[in-house]
Amino acid sequence: VGRPRRVGVSSFGVSGTNAHVILEEAPAPPGLVEPSQPTGATVAGASGGLLIWALSGRSAAAVRAQATRLLAAVDAQPELRPEDVAYSLLTSRTVFDRRAVVLAGDRAGLRNGLERLAAGTAGPDVISGRRVRGRLAVLFAGQGSQRAGMGRSLRAAVPAFAEAFETVSAALDRHLERPLSDALDDVDLLRRTEFTQPALFAFEVALYRLLALSGVRPNVLLGHSIGELAAAHVAHVWSLDDAARMVAARGRLMGALSPGGVMTAVRASVDEVEPLLTDRVSIAAVNGPSAVVLSGDVDAVEAVTAELAARGRRITPLRVSHAFHSHRMEPMLEEFRRVAASVTYHDPSIPVVSNITGRIAEPGLLTSPEYWVRHVREPVCFMAGIRSVHEHGVTTFLEAGPGGALSAMGQECIADSSADIAFVSASKPGTPETTALVTALARLFTRGAHADLGAVVPVGRRVDLPTYSFQHKHYWLEAATTMDDSTEYEEDTVAAARTGMQKQLAGLSPDDQRALLIDLVLAEATTAMRNQAIEVDLDAESPFLEIGFNSLSAVELRNRLVELTGVELTPMLLFDYPTPEYVSDLLRELLLA
Question: pTM for the full model?
Answer without folding.
Answer: 0.76
